[in-house]
Amino acid sequence: MIKVYFESNSHAELVATFESEDLYIASLPALEKKAKEQGMIVTEVDEEQEWETECEHKQEVDLGIHDDYLDRCN
Fold first, then answer.
1. Considering Cα of 53, then 15, then 34, then 10, what sign does the dihedral take?
2. Residue/partner pairs of 61-64 with CB below 8 Å, 24 or more apart
3. In sequence order, what are the beta bridge partners of 17?
4. CA 47/CA 2 separation, integer angstroms
5. Strands 12-18 and 2-7
6. Could you give the residue ranges of the DSSP H alpha helices within 1-74?
7. What gap in Å lies between CA 14 and CA 35, rounded to an integer?
8. Contact between residue 15 and residue 7 where contact means Cβ atoms under 8 Å apart
9. Each residue of 15-44: pLDDT tens digit?
10. pTM for this predicted structure
């Protein structure tokens, strides 16, 4: 899922969510126009990509703890 925000210097507003990247890309020009009218910019967060990053970080942390444990045991 892609979450779309309008952002200013002081805050961000969630304005849309998309299940399809193709639909998001097709809608982007209209979103950018609307954001500009409000003095804002469009930003997005890909939740799937965010979740994958969290999992990769968790794996790195888990491995780091494991490696540290093995170092202490040897």
1. negative
2. none
3. 3
4. 6
5. antiparallel
6. 21-37, 47-73
7. 12
8. no
9. 999 999 999 999 999 999 999 999 999 999
10. 0.64
Q: Alpha carbon of 44 to those of 30, 32, 57: distances in Å?
A: 14, 12, 21
Joined tokens for residue 9:
């210097």
For 69: left if phi > 0, alpha if psi spans -120 to 50, otherwise beta; the answer is: alpha
Residue with tokens 């952002």: 7
At a CB cut-off of 8 Å and minimum separation 6, what does 37 contact? none
The pLDDT mean for the chain works out to 78
pLDDT of residue 53: 52
- Provide the token pair at 52: 């994958």
Residue 18 in tokens: 């998309």
Task: Average the pLDDT over 52-60 and give the result.
Answer: 52
